[in-house]
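Job type: complex structure
Entries:
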Amino acid sequence: MIAQIINPHQIEVYDLSQFDAYAIMHSGQVFRYQTTNTGFTVWSAAHWAELRIFPDKVIIKCDDAAYFYRYFDLTTDYRIIKNALAFPKLQKVMEVGGGIRILQGDWVEMVISFIISANNNIKRFTKTLNALCESYGTQIAGHGYAFPTLTQLATITVADWRALGCGYRDQYLMKAVQQLGQMDFTVLQTLSTDALNKALLAMAGVGPKVAACIMLFAFHRLEVAPIDTWLKKAITQLTLDEQAVILHGQYAGVAQQYIFYALQHLHQTL
DNA sequence: ATCCAGGCAGATG
DNA sequence: CATCTGCATGGA
């Protein structure tokens, strides 16, 4: 058993070989989190969770256990995925990042976050995202701020986006918020990955890489690998087999996350 | 100071 | 279809 819902506000995770809270938080798929004495606090949409890390388990205290059971993808056995990725250089990055899981993020939050992420650095756009929540999101009593709802996002002007530090992306964000209002997650969810990709590419500020991030981190399309500046450098270092896994494999997105974490966060070489 | 950051849009071959 | 360029902004 990977994890269990103890009650509506608590989850316990038992298999830490496939749940590394530190690696998950630093793998570039969640930007609203804080380190605490015992672990992390993380926010998603209007929800919050406190992760307390113990030697043999992680206790997740949260506002909605069902939400975070899905968010942390706790029904998926990552041992199966890692077996499918057992190539030499991937093995090396899985040794340090093998506890990463692909989160099921809120799709509006992922769209806005990754539009802001383009040609930006993580430290800076994380600051922007937190400012966005504090300025336009609803305060959660004693637990920080929610990500702004679509209604709240729609009140933000071009000048406001600029003031948040979004730079030239302000116009993209204005239009993307409008477009989000005309899209339906439950419909998009039913689309093939190819059709979903096309739908996402129609949004302002969304190109191939941002669309891939949205598909992986909000639609859980594990076969989609966002190829960013880090992966472009990495891919030439991989064997042809591994390149095929990254570009076309069933778990390309997961493999990509292991590589991204090892390179970008741990500054390892392949 | 120059280059780069989880790239994209628009223009030009 | 592929390639080139401008773009806000702050950190290295």
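Summary: Residues 122-136 of chain A form the longest helix (15 residues). DSSP finds 15 helices and six strands in chain A.
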